[in-house]
Amino acid sequence: MIRGLALLGLAAFPLWSQLNFSMVSESGDVPVTALVQLAPAAAGDTVDTIFRLRNAGKTNAPVTGITIGGTGFSLASLPDFPTSLAPGGSLDFIVRFRPPIAATYSSVLKSDGIEVFVLGTGIPVLSIYVDDNGSRRPLDTSAGLDFGAAERGTRATRRVVLANETGQPLTATLAIVGSVFQLPPGTPAIISLDPLTSASLDITYAPVIAGSQQGELDIDRRRFPLRGSTVEPPLSKPIVVLDLKGDPPASGAQPTAAVHFDPPPRTSGAGTLRLEFHPSVEAQDDPAIQFLSTASRSIDFTVIEGVADAQFGQAIAIPLQTGTTAGTIVLTARLGDWEETASIEIPPQPVAIDTVQLTRTQSEVAVQVNGYDNTRSLSAATFTFLQKDGTVLAPGKIGQDLGTVFKDYFANSTLGGSFQLKLSFPVTGNAAAVDSVQVTMTNSAGQTSWPAP
Amino acid sequence: MGTLIRVLIIWSLASVTWAADVSVSAPAIGSIRDCDGRIRQVFGTPGAFVLGPAAGERSDAMRPAPRGATLERKTLILRRAGGSETRITLSESATRLQSMSAGWVAALPFAIRLTSDGATVYRLPMKACAEGPR
To answer: Closest Cα partner for A103 from A42, A26, A54, A163?
Structure first.
């Protein structure tokens, strides 16, 4: 009582003052004349209260400063001094109350010719700590708890310790705000701790969308901000797969290529699959070696989160041609920073004969051979003409040196190793007797017979 | 009489001599009317096709496919004279059948080689037709 009277005595303010303090609340200004009681604050926590200094006079009022003393009190959001307030003018500032321990606190808030007493109460509460790998640091309501950057789809966990460091049992309510922040399943809404005991909570940050995230850990009336940022997971490493459908690598084939992910990608994206060809024989290139659905050596693909196969439009595999030239076909998938390759070695093969056509006139027979030579070294052929009964016509096997003609052809060909060979053979006698022809062709990889033996 | 018989026998026997003329050129499998209705040559060998440039006026007129070869949606149906038929499911939607050359038909983007016991389906190096000659 004596203390209260003393405080009131100190609170007398001069009649000449044009200035007065008020406390700003949601319902409006609450005039402060001599004494103001701030909302109680948990020991160690901060409670901010907005105050207003108003010029109630009819002339400009100089303001040289605003001060507050005493343990647990401080000011924030002050303007630059000196300043002045026009009649009716005001300025707002914050009285910050941060009681270090559970106790009652008092102080004097002063400005030009005006002062009021400010009272605050620190209430006993649980102490809150963050456990960083076994070392504790206090968690306060201003700094809160930052989870840092976490990849979308992953979980980050921080351990919070609630400690009763008082001599009396304490009970606190627990709640969390923000869907990406979660208390452990089964955490009670109210926690009671005996003196000098503690409990820990693993708070999980599980972001599902990109960007910064905010939440709140509420322990009684204390609100600890929770923050985290979300980063996109990295694009997955592509695995280029070639499906030769069980056949050995060879020219003249149409295998398929695909891009897989293992495990399935955690994010979506887009990439490109490119094809290169390195001939192993004397050749510049082979235009037939290309992706069929684009008729080019490049095709874009998309990556869908959770889907293990890249998408080429609607397809998950695309056909390509191996052409008609021996060499190495290299497929390179580029996706983000990834660049993964797969290759197939097309070995040199004996000449591949696709068709042999025989036509006759009265005096000659013409033979047309379609096929390819992936070595581009075709040097010789033989032709054996037969009658309908299988009898070999004279002079028997006819050899033909083709080295020069094919060398000239391949030097200028833009169709890889494919060719159409035409020969005409004069016939002595009845050309109609020529019924069929057997052909052999020789290149650096071996000899091919038609029809196949 | 004996002399005459000997001459006829000799005349009926044929013999072939060394080739008088040899040439090598780029093989052409046939031609197609592409998605835009323009003519394109198909070069190369089966499975290693190269399309020539588009030429000629745009048209929907196509050489009809051989009798017995039809396409129902993505199913190629080959009916033989004996009544038997072969069905081949194409991996993509295709345009209506057109003849490429003897023994070859196309249902873009596919080239189909007709064989005595069915057909072999190849993919041509081209984008599938969004519309075009269907």
So the answer is: A42
Task: Give the total residue count for chain B.
Answer: 134
Rounded to a whole number of angstroms, the distance from the CA of B109 to the nearest CA of chain A is: 8
A372 closest CB neighbour out of B28, B45, B128 = B45
Report the C-alpha gap between A173 and A68 in whole angstroms. 33
Strand bridging mode A114-123 / A41-42? parallel
**CA-based torsion, B21, B27, B30, B35: positive or negative:** negative
Cβ neighbours of residue A194 closer than 8 Å, sequence gap 6 or more: A164, A169
DSSP state for residue B68 in the 8-state scheme: T
| Secondary structure of residue A293 in the 3-state scheme | coil
Under DSSP, the state recorded for A393 is: P
| Nearest-by-Cβ selection for A418 from B15, B16, B45 | B45
> Is residue B133 very low, low, confident or very high in pLDDT (cuts 50, 70, 90)?
very low
**Nearest-10 Cα torsion for A131, A133, A134, A138:** -30
Domains identified in chain A and CATH numbers: 2-123 (2.60.40.10), 127-231 (2.60.40.10), 239-346 (2.60.40.10), 352-450 (2.60.40)
DSSP for A195-253 reads: TT-EEEEEEEE---SSEEEEEEEEETTEEEEEEEEEEPPPPPPPEEEEE-TTPPS-TT-
pLDDT in tens, B15-55: 766 666 899 999 999 999 999 999 999 999 999 999 999 99
At residue A7, what are phi and psi to the nearest 5 degrees?
-65, -40
A404, two tokens = 């020069």
The residue with tokens 């038997």 is B84
pLDDT single digits (tens) A149-173: 999 988 999 999 999 998 899 999 9
Q: Which two tokens mark A227?
A: 């923050």
Residue with tokens 């009819």: A58
Average pLDDT over residues A109-137: 93
B116 shares contact with chain A (CB less than 8 Å): no
Q: Which residues in chain A are closer than 8 Å to B17, comparing Cβ atoms?
A: 395, 398, 425-428
pLDDT over 80 (residue A122): yes
Decide if A429 and B17 are in contact by the 8 Å CB cutoff: no
Other C-beta atoms closer than 10 Å to the C-beta of B73 total 8
Supply the DSSP symbol for A82: S
pTM of the model: 0.71
If you write DSSP's letter for every residue of A132-197 in order, what string do you get? ETTEEEE--TTT-EEEEEEETT--EEEEEEEE--SSS-EEEEEEEESTTEEPPTT--SEEEE-TT-
Distance between CA atoms of residues A377 and A381, nearest Å = 12
The amino acid at residue A341 is T
**DSSP label of B127:** P
